[in-house]
Specification:
Helices cover 31% and strands 18% of the residues. The protein has 13 helices and 12 strands. Strands 5, 6, 7, 8, 9, 10, 11 and 12 form an 8-stranded mixed β-sheet that branches. It has a 4-stranded parallel β-sheet with strand order 2-1-3-4, with helices on one face. Helix 2 packs across helix 4, helix 2 crosses helix 10 and helix 6 packs parallel to helix 9. The radius of gyration is 24 Å and the shape is elongated.
């Protein structure tokens, strides 16, 4: 074996298992092993769930691209580890071949990919001990030391349950807004998680706004009667969108104010709701550009399309889909915006990886979202009423920065704008791809 051993990880698409294995070995070997990965039928991109799962343990594989398996790659490697490439992997005398029987992460969410990632991690650690048997004990101990970035443990429901709770709430809000009842659009009488807990916020209970858990209000104003959510935040920025679209806003800011939009650009709004930010963007990217809204709620999509028709804006498109699986090709948009929606997603890493995927190189994102204080109490974090009210699911500044970095973003700027809760504040978030 060469002084610097070389390892080739191979799976069918080089999009999940082999990429995670290569990421772990690169991270753990510290430059002492030459690491390659390839696929017998390489995919178009690395699996976003694999990217997110690796980001959870502090390893960024978002910049990797699937590569085709070649004879030269096999010949130049000391160890070849297959994970399902079958007969497509050529055999050469003198090579060490291993076959790791691992579940395929294709089509699975990050929660299911986590255990696969952990098994790969353990196997790579064992492999590295064999490859570098003479490594000094201090380095070996360090290699085994925990380096996992802790997951946020306060998520009290499965991701699909959170998604459905959020969907129900905003479907009801859209239905009320469509009927012209914008005040009561924020009052959603459902019972998804039992009795509402005692309030932990310093926001006063106004006549509008409630959570999915019954009568607990999600306030639009603070104790000083300052608006912290909703249409009044727009001001002059609302120009270009019909009054009904802006009135239906449940956001915590105005992302178009910092998106720096230009004619000819393609803009994607994640969680576009009634369409206000899409319609504002559409005016600014004309002529030649277009604005796309993505929402999972049929009622919101119907309302947004109606608002676009009434506004006479034709360079817009509204798509049904999830933030975690954006139905657009790689590198197809110039700017991604969002208004107080990322905090509602159960897994922000997957959402941001998807945002990075659809952005062109050199593209940018401009979000308005809620940032949690470091000292947010566990009761607030565990309250589904606070989740659908855009509080409990919020990341801290450090967590958001880490998530953006893991997704491949640079030039990250998080600028607080106003407080929305005892333990959270709204912020404008910008970054480049």
């Amino acid at each position: 074996m060469a002084i610097k051993p070389s390892v080739l990880f191979v799976c069918v698409h080089n999009a999940g298992r082999s990429q995670m294995a290569a990421g772990f070995l690169t991270h753990l070997a510290g430059g002492q092993v030459e690491v390659r990965s390839a696929g017998s039928i390489p995919g178009d991109r690395v699996n976003p769930s694999a990217v997110a799962a690796m980001a959870e343990v502090g390893i960024d594989i978002s910049h990797q691209t699937p590569k085709v398996l070649t004879t030269d790659a096999v010949q130049s490697s000391d160890v070849v580890i297959t994970m399902g490439c079958g007969d497509a992997c050529p055999i050469f005398p003198g090579k060490r071949y291993l076959d790791w029987d691992l579940e395929d992460p294709a089509g699975q969410g990050v929660e299911a990919v986590g255990p696969i990632r952990d098994e790969i991690h353990a196997r790579v650690q064992t492999l590295l001990t064999e490859l570098l048997p003479d490594q000094d004990p201090a380095r070996a101990a360090n290699r085994q030391a925990p380096f996992v970035v802790p997951r946020r443990r306060h998520i009290m429901s499965a991701p699909e349950d959170i998604r459905e709770i959020v969907r129900r709430r905003y479907a009801e809000a859209a239905t009320r807004s469509a009927a012209g009842d914008h005040e009561q659009a924020r009052v959603v009488e459902t019972s998804c998680c039992g009795a509402a807990p005692a309030a932990t916020t310093d926001l006063q209970p106004p006549a509008v706004g409630t959570s999915c858990c019954g009568p607990t209000p999600v306030a639009l104003t603070d104790k000083q009667d300052r608006v912290v959510f909703g249409a009044e935040l727009y001001g002059p920025e609302a120009q270009g969108a019909p009054e009904d679209a802006v009135a239906a806003s449940l956001g915590c800011g105005v992302p178009t104010a910092v998106a720096d939009l230009h004619p000819g650009e393609v803009v994607l709004d994640l969680g576009s709701g009634a369409g206000a930010d899409v319609l504002i963007s559409a005016r600014r990217v004309a002529p030649g550009g277009r604005a796309i809204g993505l929402d999972m709620t049929d009622e919101m999509l119907e309302l947004a399309r109606r608002n676009a028709t009434e506004a006479g804006v034709d360079n817009v498109e509204f798509l049904k889909g999830y933030l975690e699986d954006i139905p657009l090709p790689d590198g197809s948009v110039d700017v991604v915006i969002s208004n107080c929606v990322i905090n509602l997603a159960a897994d922000k890493n997957v959402v941001l990886a998807e945002a990075a995927r659809v952005l062109r190189l050199g593209g940018r994102l401009a979000f308005s979202d809620v940032i949690a204080d470091e000292d947010m109490d566990e009761m607030t974090k565990a309250d589904m009423a606070e989740w659908t009210g855009c509080i409990a699911g919020a990341l801290t500044d450090a967590e958001f920065t880490q998530a953006l970095t893991s997704a491949g973003f640079t030039d990250i700027e998080i600028r607080p704008t106003h407080r929305v809760h005892t333990h959270a504040q709204a912020a404008l978030i910008r970054a480049s791809r």
